Amino acid sequence: PLQDGKEQTANGTSHKTSLTVPYLNPLVLRKELENILTQEGDIALIKPEFVDEHPIIYWNLLWLMERIESKTHLPELCLPVPSDKEHIDPLSKVKTVHIQCLWDNLSLHTEASGPPMYLLYRETQPTSPLIKALLTDHAQLNKNVIQQIISAIRCNDFATPLKRLANERHKLKSNGLERSHSFYRDILFLALTAIG
Question: What is the pLDDT of residues 156-193, one digit of tens each?
Fold first, then answer.
């Protein structure tokens, strides 16, 4: 998903709003944009209503233009148009838009399925072996298993991590925890976090 965080500051006050839209593959985005242009014409891209009428297309277009470093009028569409140009407070124009591409939506992970491996990897490990032994949670993957998976990925070995993860999930299932994360996503996101 793409996430847009807006902050507007006027007269010393500020507030933030956040909007999340799904990320579209550039080919899908192109097809959707072609549909809009066919149905509404080129004029649709200069109307401020475009932001509210087609938010997924708008924010994905904005993200794409930022990534390819192309100049565009699109950011101006989400800025408010002042109704009275004579009494414009210069501070009321201050507004920033921050767009961030999220490769995982944390709200999709339930407590029942446990955290994905990359979140377990990010957790700081206790320095004391005694504390480490006491804090071991048998309802989630062991950190040693995660390190073994990372080591295998660094050696371009994908079969070992799959086997190891399947074995660990089978053990967790016998303890009553059913992990719903796909093997591929769990390993991919771990690799992105640990290796880059």
Answer: 999 999 999 888 888 878 777 676 678 888 888 889 88
Residue carrying structure tokens 């009553």: 176
Sign of CA dihedral 8, 11, 12, 15: negative
Integer CA distances (angstroms), 72 to 61, 68, 82, in order:
10, 11, 21
Smallest Cα–Cα separation from 59: which of 21, 103, 6? Answer: 21
The three-point CA angle 6-7-11 to 5° equals 150
pLDDT of residue 9: 45
Q: What is the DSSP letter of 124?
A: P
- Report residue 36's pLDDT band, with 50, 70 and 90 as the boundaries: very high
The whole-number pLDDT of residue 25 equals 85
Q: Pick the closest to residue 6 from 134, 133, 136, 99 (CA basis).
A: 99
170 vs 113: CA distance, rounded Å: 13
Q: How far apart are CA 180 and CA 110, in angstroms?
A: 9
Helix residue spans in 41-154 (DSSP H):
49-53, 55-67, 74-77, 117-122, 129-135, 143-154
Element (H, E) at 24: none
